[in-house]
Each structure stands twice: as structure tokens, then as C-alpha cells.
Design brief:
724 residues, mainly beta, 27-stranded antiparallel β-sheet, 3-stranded antiparallel β-sheet, 6 helices, 38 strands
Length: 724
């Protein structure tokens, strides 16, 4: 929908927002009124070697017609049989329709609907060992051959259309009222393998890698090493094995589906493909009143209502040759004494699952948000400024649609509502020293309700919330110096943002505690501070130079507390343990720079190049490795404490990008061609990020090593458009 969403107003950082209150990161207003689009038709074809290969786009707009109606339509498709990474595929469509009726000089109505149904095969992330064994930094463990064709086990399938109805009322020459209603709905999901009473099918599972046997079994190490390095198919999914394993698993289930005497016989699948769904429905109402008080002062006020329901469940996608799947928790079967404990839904015990059935978990996330805000702006010859404030009420609760056997009293029906009242204030000023030298300053203070995901210990199974759940507090500000002349313009900015009392919840298998756990961390403070510089110099009528640089410090700024709760029985295994992560870095680049040159020919063509530099990229840390418990498990002379606590910093790197553009006008027709080449030097050794696994062994850090992401090598994008 590139052409359909091209009309936008981007407001970066803390500022006076034109259509809402905004946030610390700014806001983007995409203008979808049909009358705002250029009259005409534009068709585009694109060729690339990225996640997709081909793209087709069409947009047509009538402009405002004599009958006071304007209509715009857009449709597109992006697709590939296989993307840059082996085993991936892409098939995405989009549609956009907008109609506007000018009722009178004072009133207009606008209706818009758009959506983008997308199906794609995913790419895995791997350890360095797997990349080295396959000699491929884009090794993808999610796929394997089935009947001679590549099949990906992780397929994302999303379609969440959005509809909007807006009313524009020009009350008089100085005031207007804009009111809109939006409704979004649809499906989202991603498939994954699951298994029962069977070996892990993932080809890069740590027990299938040579390193697991490095010291304990040299012969097995050599056998696996040879398989990985000489057999191209060894590191991929073995679909034939999964079907074969299912073929002989005959079972007899008595009292099936909770019905006494109901017996089901057949092939009970050991391996399946499940789809983890996150469907939703969402209604929003927004209304904003704007008034120009006089030539210097403008005020605005508005109300927002957001009613959200997220539907989270698993659905059977493929039984892989079997007849059914029994909906029980195999870990609860192993750890808990009663057969009821293992039932996913006591309302449907011994539930027989076939393709299309829901199982495992099924709950609804209900989140309602109500906001009021006001803002005033003033403009004078030397000073501009604004002040704003907002107040928000948020309530959320969990509705369980299954009565989980482990938590029969805490999993079914509506939970207790969590309620938060939040507020924020912001302000800013611009001082115009001269027409070329300007100083701006902005600041805000706000509180923000915790999100649903990080509020429940395990929303899949029960309604237990994190103890001491509270709102997050944010302080943020920036100061900028702007310089503008006929030949040079630039901006230098210092920014500071502090987040306090954040919450995080993760679930994983804890090796030391030997169980699946819910890991909640509270009191998370973070600090983002740094400087940015942007320059543009017009050295001649045809040559422009651009440059930017940014350096920052994005760190954890507290020692949070962690509580670890067993997933199967809610036993508190660790209570209020301190995590020593203060001054550790957030993941992502913290130093960036770019320099570019562009040539614009009077004959409607241009070329350019840029060199980009990235440094201070750190791995995303596992907080459990920064605790007293982790250190105490090591003996005094153990060489691993530094490895345990140290945060990996990746090598700095640079890339070179090129672009070119040419346009032609033939009578009333316009033709445009553009070409972009990224990572011109085809560097495939660049690590762009990674994470420490939450599952780890303090006595053997190499057992569950870090996982990394690598930058794509040379990629291109060719775009041809035809407009009339």
C-alpha cells in the first residue's frame, strides 16, 4: 500500500501533535481522504532479491468530481517462491478503498477500508556452531524436503483489515471538529511443530549438534560433524521421519470428549503442526476540536476510546498422517499426580483434536482505554511554543475459555479487572535567534499502564497477575539547534529519556530448577540518552551532500527483582531475587553514522551513494545470568565468571549503498525507473544482533550458546512505474 499511504504527516519526538496527543517517539498521521490523492492512474512493477521477488501495484483516483464525490482504489501483490533465505516464501496481497462525499462547504464524510492478507515462510535464528557447520550465515532450520519440495514448518498467516468512517466539520473560519470511528478485526497466526512422548524434531536442537559430545563422546562428535558438513539435507527438518513416527502410533482413548463410554481408536499423532493464533477485534472512537483563538494562539482538545479484544488460542493445522491428537499436557502428566491435572479443558476431558479444532489454551485479552487530552500552541515572531496534558483510564482482564486442569479455579471465565489511571504533561518552545539559527526544547512527564502480556504470569493457563503490578513512569526531553542557509542546513540534538518501574514476563525451561517456569521481573528502569547530528549541503545546483551521526547510551538503570514461579503448579520457586543488570546495555546499535552524495541532472535523472557505519551493538542479555545464584554455582577458580556476566559486543561494520533514478514524460504519460543496491560489497559476515538464551547452564555456558542474526548480503530493488 505504498502509494495509498504516501500522504502523511510525520512528527518526530515530543512535539505538538496535530491530530492526537502523541507520544515520546512522535506520531504519524496517514491521510486517507480520497480527495487528497492526485487524480489519475499509476501502475508499478518491482523486482528484488529480498524477502520477496516480485511486486505489482495499481492505484487509481478520481479526484474530487463535480458531484462532490472522490474515490481512490489501490491493490497490490508481493510474492516469491523463495526469498533471500532458503526455505522461505512470500505471498502478500493488499487492498485499499477510500470514498469521500462533500456534503456541503462545512461537512464531509470519508470512508476507508484497507487490509493486507499475508502468508510467508519464516526464517530461524541459530547458534554460531550451526552457521559454521552449514557454512551459511542464513541457515534456516524451519524447513525440509517433503516429496521433493521444500516445506517450512513456521508459516505466518495474517489478515487484519481496518475500516474507518470520518466526519469533517468546518464549524466556522476559526474552528473545526473531526470525528472518526474505526473497526479492525481478523486473524493472525504462525504455525509450529509440537510433539508428544517423542524426541525433539528440531534439527538444530542442542543434543543434535557435535558440540554436545565434544568431551563426553569423541566418536559421536565426529559422526555428527561429518553428517552436518557433508550431507546438505542433514541440518533440515526430516518430514519423512515425522510421518513415519506417526504411522504406527495406534491408540485407544476411552471416555473421549468427556463422554462416558465414548471410545475413539486410531492413529494418535506424536508430531503435529499447530497454529498459534492471535486474532482480534478492535473498536476506536476519536474526536478532536481545533480552534484558532487569534493569529497567535491555537487550542485543541479531544477524546479517544479504544476497546480491544485479543483472541489467543491454538488450532490444529496438520496431524502429519495421524487420525487425532489428545489434548493433554505431557509435562503435567509427568509431574502431577492426578489425571485431571493434565487436562487442557476440564469441560471437555480427553478431548479428541482433529484438523481445525482448538486445543491447548484459549483465552481472550480484554483491554479498554479511555483518554482525554488538551493542547495549546502559540506562535510569535521570536518564540513559538505549546503546552499539553492528557488523562487515561485503562482496564484489562482475562477471559478464560478453557478450564485448565492445573488451575481449575483460576483459568475459566472472567478474571478480576486490573485498573489504572494515568496522566501526562508536555511542553516545548522554539526560540528564533535569527531566521537561520533556531533553538528548540521539548519535555514530557507521563505514566503508562502495563501492557496485558507482561501483566499475567501465564495468561495461557491462568489469571495470576504479577505481584506489585504498577504503572510505568517516563521522563523525556530534548534540546536542538537548527541551522538553515541557502546552501547548508543541519540539526544537532541532545535527548534524554528515562523509563521507571517496567515489568517483563518470560516463560522457559529452567535447567537448574528442572521445570518450565514463569519468570517475572519488576522494577525495570531504563535510560536512553545521546546526541544526533544531521547535515545537508548543496555544493552546486546538481550535487547535494548529506551526513548524519548519532551516539547514545541505552542502558538498564536499576537492579530489578525477579520472582520465579513453576508453570505447572504456581509454586513460588524464587521470591524477590535481585538481578544485577544496572549499566548493562540494551540490544541494538548505539553508534551510527552515514555520509552520502547525490547528483541531480537537469535531464531528470539522478544517482547517489552512501556509506553507513554501525558500532556499539550489544547482545540482548539473559538477566538470570546476572544473579548471586548464578555466581554461587561456580567454584572459586572457575574461569567462567567473566563469561557469565560479560555482555558481548559485536564488531563495528560499514556498508555501501547505491541508488539511481530516471523519469520520462511522453505527452500526458510519465515513466519512472529507480534502482537501489544495498550492501554493495556483499558482506555476509556482519552480525546485526542476537540474544542470550534464557535456558542456560551456569557450569557449561556452551551448552546453550548465544544466537545471532546476520545482515543480508548484496540486495537490489528495481522499480518501474507508469502514471497517467
Amino acid at each position: 500500500m505504498n502509494d495509498a499511504t504516501r500522504n502523511k504527516v510525520v512528527e518526530s519526538g515530543i512535539t505538538a501533535n496535530q491530530v492526537n496527543y502523541g507520544g515520546i517517539g512522535g506520531a504519524t498521521n496517514i491521510i486517507t481522504r480520497a480527495s487528497s490523492y492526485r487524480k489519475g492512474v499509476k501502475a508499478t512493477y518491482s523486482l528484488t532479491n529480498r524477502s520477496y521477488r516480485n511486486r505489482l501495484m495499481l492505484i487509481a483516483s478520481t479526484g474530487m468530481m463535480e458531484n462532490g464525490v472522490a474515490v481512490t482504489f489501490s491493490g497490490s501483490r508481493r510474492w516469491s517462491q523463495e526469498g533471500y533465505v532458503q526455505g522461505t516464501f512470500y505471498d502478500a496481497w493488499s487492498y485499499f478503498f477510500s470514498a469521500e462525499k462533500k456534503i456541503s462547504e462545512a461537512h464531509s464524510l470519508s470512508f476507508t477500508i484497507f487490509g493486507a492478507p499475508t502468508v510467508r515462510g519464516k526464517q530461524s535464528v541459530a547458534t554460531q556452531e550451526a552457521y559454521d557447520l552449514t557454512d551459511n550465515h542464513y541457515y534456516n532450520s524451519y524447513w525440509g524436503y517433503q516429496d521433493g519440495e521444500k516445506r517450512n514448518s513456521r508459516v505466518s498467516n495474517y489478515h487484519k483489515p481496518m475500516m474507518m468512517l470520518n466526519h469533517f466539520w468546518k464549524i466556522d473560519e476559526k474552528s473545526k471538529l473531526t470525528t472518526g470511528y474505526g473497526y479492525s478485526f481478523g486473524r493472525g497466526g504462525s504455525t509450529a511443530l509440537n510433539w508428544y512422548n517423542a524426541q525433539d524434531p528440531r534439527p538444530d536442537y542442542y543434543r543434535y549438534l557435535p558440540s554436545y559430545y565434544d568431551t563426553k563422546d569423541p566418536d559421536e562428535y565426529n559422526r555428527l560433524y561429518n553428517l552436518w558438513t557433508t550431507n546438505d539435507d542433514y541440518g533440515q527438518l526430516n518430514w519423512d521421519f515425522l510421518y513415519f513416527a506417526n504411522s504406527d502410533e495406534y491408540d485407544r482413548i476411552e471416555n473421549a470428549d468427556g463422554q462416558d463410554g465414548n471410545t475413539v481408536e486410531g492413529i494418535r499423532s506424536k508430531y503435529i503442526i499447530e497454529e498459534r493464533r492471535n486474532d482480534h477485534s478492535r473498536s476506536t472512537i476519536n474526536s478532536q476540536y481545533d480552534r484558532d483563538v487569534n493569529e497567535h494562539i491555537k487550542v485543541s482538545a479531544g477524546v479517544n476510546v479504544d476497546l480491544y479484544k485479543g483472541y489467543h488460542f491454538k488450532e490444529m493445522s496438520d496431524l502429519l498422517g495421524g487420525d487425532f491428537w489428545l489434548d493433554v499436557d505431557q509435562f503435567a502428566e509427568r509431574d502431577l499426580p492426578e489425571w485431571e491435572d493434565a487436562q487442557s479443558d476440564l469441560n471437555h476431558t480427553n478431548n479428541i483434536i482433529e484438523v481445525g479444532d482448538r486445543f491447548g489454551y484459549d483465552y481472550t485479552a480484554n483491554v479498554n482505554t479511555y483518554s482525554l487530552y488538551g493542547q495549546s500552541e502559540f506562535t510569535y515572531s521570536k518564540v513559538d511554543g505549546y503546552l499539553g496534558a492528557n488523562a487515561t483510564y485503562t482496564e484489562f482482564w482475562r477471559t478464560g475459555n478453557m478450564k485448565n486442569g492445573k488451575f481449575p479455579d483460576e483459568s475459566y471465565g472472567d478474571s478480576e479487572k486490573q485498573q489504572f489511571i494515568n496522566y501526562g504533561v508536555k511542553g516545548g518552545a522554539t526560540y528564533k535567534i535569527t531566521g537561520r539559527h533556531i533553538i528548540t526544547a521539548n519535555g514530557t512527564f507521563l505514566t503508562r499502564a502495563p501492557n496485558f502480556r507482561n501483566s499475567y504470569l501465564s495468561a495461557r493457563t491462568r489469571d495470576h497477575v504479577v505481584e506489585g503490578l504498577t504503572s510505568e513512569t517516563i521522563y523525556s526531553g530534548d534540546v536542538s539547534y537548527h541551522f538553515r542557509s541557502p546552501y547548508i542546513k543541519g540539526r544537532l540534538t541532545y535527548y534524554y529519556t528515562e523509563f521507571k518501574d517496567g515489568v517483563s514476563v518470560r516463560s522457559f525451561y529452567h535447567d537448574d530448577l528442572r521445570t518450565f517456569v514463569n519468570y517475572s521481573m519488576t522494577g525495570i528502569d531504563k535510560l536512553h540518552t545521546g546526541m544526533e547530528l544531521g547535515l545537508e549541503a548543496k555544493v552546486s545546483p546538481t550535487i547535494t551532500l548529506t551526513g548524519m551521526a548519532g551516539t547514545g547510551e541505552f542502558i538498564y538503570n536499576s537492579r530489578p527483582e525477579v520472582t520465579i514461579v513453576a508453570d505447572n503448579n504456581s509454586e513460588v520457586l524464587v521470591d524477590s531475587k535481585t538481578v544485577y543488570i544496572k549499566n548493562f546495555r540494551m540490544s541494538g546499535p548505539q553508534t551510527v553514522g552515514s555520509f552520502g552524495a547525490k547528483y541531480f541532472s537537469p535531464k531528470y535523472w539522478s544517482v547517489g551513494a552512501s556509506i553507513n557505519y554501525i558500532d556499539n551493538v550489544y547482545i540482548n542479555i539473559n538477566p538470570e545470568r546476572r544473579t548471586d545464584d548464578a555466581l554461587n554455582r561456580l567454584y572459586v577458580e572457575d574461569p567462567q565468571p567473566d563469561m557469565l556476566f560479560e555482555q558481548q559486543r559485536f564488531h563495528d561494520y560499514y556498508t555501501i549503498d547505491l541508488f539511481g533514478y530516471k523519469s520520462w514524460k511522453i505527452k500526458d504519460y510519465y515513466i519512472n525507473v529507480s534502482v537501489n543496491v544495498n550492501n554493495l560489497l556483499n558482506r555476509t559476515d556482519i552480525i546485526t544482533g542476537g540474544f542470550e538464551q534464557y535456558r542456560y547452564n551456569a557450569k557449561d555456558l556452551n551448552k546453550f550458546p548465544n544466537k545471532y542474526f546476520y545482515m543480508y548480503g548484496r540486495t537490489y530493488f528495481v522499480n518501474l512505474s507508469f502514471r497517467f
